[in-house]
Design brief:
Blueprint: H1 3-7, E1 13-17, H2 24-33, E2 40-43, E3 60-63, E4 77-82, H3 85-103, H4 109-127, H5 135-141, H6 146-159, E5 164-167, H7 168-172, H8 177-183, H9 209-212, H10 215-231, H11 252-269
Helix pairs in contact: 3-11, 6-10
Length: about 270
């Protein structure tokens, strides 16, 4: 008997869920690579409102964000992907300008670009060593609330005790054994993703929040994030980098790059 083949069997239907900027795209392609060509796949149906019927045959793979992922609660395998909320906040901050480019209404172009330019200017000042700019102030500029995002994940976890919680940090470190056993698949971390999703890959690291947060941020976010950190096994430890290092290639230059990409895409769609 082939023990390897016997251990890793194709599962029925797999759902990957969570919130944005948690590594779900990379995980989707890692799992997809381990599945046969006949796999039914659905990638981020949240905007198109596509669903699959309850009698969808296996194997199937869906990546959907909370709360739209409730449409796939009948799947046998549900992976809840979580990430340190401090890193998730930084990642979302740096990606949000791309979303702004894609969603501003015709006639609001000047306002949108003015906001993005002001935001990039603040990030550049922070990169150059100015300590008076907090993450909280940057989040307020772009109207980002980590509290609401954490609540989505926590509520999903409470409502789906059968889900498998997988941490972004374990994916980055290649710690895949428990997930492989859950799925019955042999997986590889760091899967290649299509070129049109390359903007999603930024640092491929974790712990960068220590370079971004300020003492003011700790005072504001520590109590807000404590319950989430405890629930998903993250240490309630907030030591900042003694000499913060902020790489513009994964900061201000990254923002400018994806804003340019978003602008070109919007021009092609002719929606201004």
């Amino acid at each position: 008997m082939n023990t390897i083949a016997n251990k890793y069997r194709y599962p029925s239907r797999i759902l990957i869920t969570g919130i944005g900027k948690s590594g779900s795209t990379a995980l989707f392609y890692s799992i997809l690579k381990a599945l046969p060509d006949c796999t039914i796949q659905l990638f981020e149906p949240d905007n198109t409102k596509k669903t699959l019927p309850a009698n969808t045959p296996p194997p199937a793979l869906v990546k959907s964000f909370i709360p739209y992922s409730e449409n796939f609660s009948f799947f046998e395998k549900k992976i809840l992907l979580v990430r340190d909320p401090r890193d998730n906040l930084i990642s979302l901050l740096l990606y949000k300008p791309y979303n702004i480019i894609g969603k501003f209404f015709p006639g609001e172009k000047e306002k949108a670009f003015s906001l993005i330019d002001a935001f990039i200017d603040q990030v550049k000042k922070k990169e150059n060593g100015y300590t008076g700019i907090s993450v909280r102030s940057l989040a307020k500029m772009l109207d980002i609330s980590p509290e609401k995002r954490m609540a989505l994940v926590s509520v999903y976890f409470d409502n789906h005790p059968d889900c498998f919680v997988f941490r972004y940090e374990d994916y980055i470190d290649g710690k895949m054994d428990d997930l492989q056993n859950y799925l019955g698949l042999k997986l590889e971390s760091g899967a290649e993703i299509p070129s049109n999703f390359e903007r999603l890959a930024r640092s491929k690291k974790y712990g960068n929040w220590r370079n971004w947060f300020t003492p003011e941020d700790i005072d504001f976010y520590r109590q807000m994030m404590k319950s989430y950190l405890d629930k998903f096994g993250y240490a309630d430890e907030w030591e900042l980098a003694p000499h913060p290092e902020m790489d513009p290639d994964i900061g201000s230059r990254y923002i400018s790059k994806i804003v340019q990409e978003g602008t070109e895409l919007r021009t092609k769609r002719k929606i201004d």
